[in-house]
Amino acid sequence: MRQSIQPPQPPFEFVRGHPEILVYFDPDNNDDVYVQMERLAKYLSDIKLYREASIYFAWLTKQALSEKRKIQRVEDLKYVCNHWAASNDFLEDIKDNLVTAIITDNPAFIGDNVNIRQDPVLGKNVLGKLEFNEECQVLERSDTRQRINGTDAYWYKVRTTDDTEGWVYGQLLSFYLDLPPQT
């Protein structure tokens, strides 16, 4: 049996502009909280509110879901992240310290962990490691993309929970909006 975990609440200002999402927070709804959050995240994605959808897909990836369901939520998170990261809001959110990155690439592809580098280039400048599903704060994005293994992506300067700062290749990251608690 899953333990009850409190889902993230939608930002007040956002709800004021989109009152239709309140149906997903109906305490009388018989669906479990995971189903409600999946519906909300998919709805936000469908109406192209990728930034907001990232909050709920990220929350879902951290829950005790079946492996198949978790893989699908990670793919959903990557999808909304790609759209949000292409928007002007994304760089502003980074400047405002509202973006958290999570290592979501397939562990079979990346191995046990991801290198944090001193500079945004491949080489022997490794400062530390991030593990699959580990989170870090995004501090900035490189000015240009780099092609590695056939994929073009930006590098992101991040800060880990132990205050290590360095660069991680963007292909290995997914992002979500990390809003401060509402008062």
How would you describe this protein?
The protein is α+β, with helices and mostly antiparallel strands. It has two domains: 12-85; 97-177, Roll (SH3 type barrels). It is 34% helix and 24% strand. The protein contains six helices and nine strands; from the N terminus they run H-H-H-H-H-E-H-E-E-E-E-E-E-E-E. The protein has helices spanning 12-17, 33-46, 50-61, 67-85, 88-95, 107-110; strands at residues 99-103, 113-117, 126-131, 135-141, 146-148, 151-153, 155-159, 165-169, 173-177. It has a five-stranded antiparallel sheet with strand order 8-7-4-1-9. It has a two-stranded antiparallel sheet with strand order 2-3. Strand 5 and strand 6 form a beta hairpin. Helix 2 (33-46) runs antiparallel to helix 3 (50-61) and helix 3 packs antiparallel against helix 4. It is globular. The two termini are 32 Å apart. Residues 1-5 have low confidence and may be disordered.
User: What is the overall shape?
Assistant: globular
Oligomer: single chain
Roughly what is the average pLDDT, rounded to an integer?
Answer: 80
| Uncertain residue segments | 1-5
Strand sequence of the main sheet, in spatial order?
A: 8-7-4-1-9
Give the count of helical stretches. Answer: 6
User: What portion of residues is helical?
Assistant: 25-40%
**Measured on Cα atoms, how large is the radius of gyration?**
17 Å
Number of domains as seen in the coordinates: 2
Biggest β-sheet, characterized? Answer: 5 strands, antiparallel
Q: Helices and strands: which structural class?
A: alpha+beta
Q: How many strands?
A: 9
Strand content: 15-25%
- What is the CATH homologous superfamily assignment of the largest domain? SH3 Domains
Distance from N terminus to C terminus (CA atoms, Å) equals 32 Å
Q: Which CATH architecture of the largest domain would you pick?
A: Roll
The CATH topology annotation of the largest domain reads as SH3 type barrels
Q: Write the element-wise H/E pattern from the N-terminal end onward.
A: HHHHHEHEEEEEEEE
**CATH class identity of the largest domain:** Mainly Beta
